[in-house]
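Hi U.,

Before I forget, here's the chain from the pilot set. I'm dumping it here mostly so it's searchable later in email.
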Amino acid sequence: MIKKLIFLFFLLSGFRCLSQVEFYSHSSLGYDTTNILNGTTANISDDSSFFELTMGCKNTSSGNLNLTIRRKIFSYSWSFLNDQLCDNNLCYIPSSNDFTAPASNLLAVGEICTVKSSFMFSNNNTSIYVRYYALDDNLNMIDSVDFALNNATNINQGINQSGIMISSLQNNSEIFVSNTGNYSKLNFKIYNILGTLISEKLLSNKNSTIDVNLPTGTFIVRVDYNGKILKSKKITAF
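Structure:
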């Protein structure tokens, strides 16, 4: 009974945190508030040497919120001349792949903070997997969103990303990867929530079922080719 009450407490706490902010994409038309990005991976392809990623983070809690943005690059196969993180009107040059903005933004209920990241690449055929965290007063995570950016004129050497599918089976104890294009030398990788690689496998078959035996927690499953991210999926093992 005690274990059930403890589990319920953490479950309800998690729901409260998830409801405090919402991430949205941004374009010339403004914020796309119909598409909440929390807990998802957005795949973006672009062929220019300069790329600017813009999103909004909205305070959906019942009171004012001191919001701090953290940006963490988990993996990359790139060369870059410069990158920058802007949080509303304050811009910073990140000192590391894991960077937390030194100042917070006080958001009223319903107010949206604009978050921008700009990357200037020095070569083509590159990719990056990056996560943005919304942090509270105590720098605890409220929620996050992931982006997989492929920067290349000829992305993934002709591999059609729609030919790769990731699905989980049996409470996420098994992962099924469908490779309808029958591409060879695809890499299957699993990262924990902190971005540490915990398992990898070379996929040689058209369709593969991988026994993962993950402990309880949240993980990122990724399929790539020569460092170029083809598909990624967030799963929760229990």
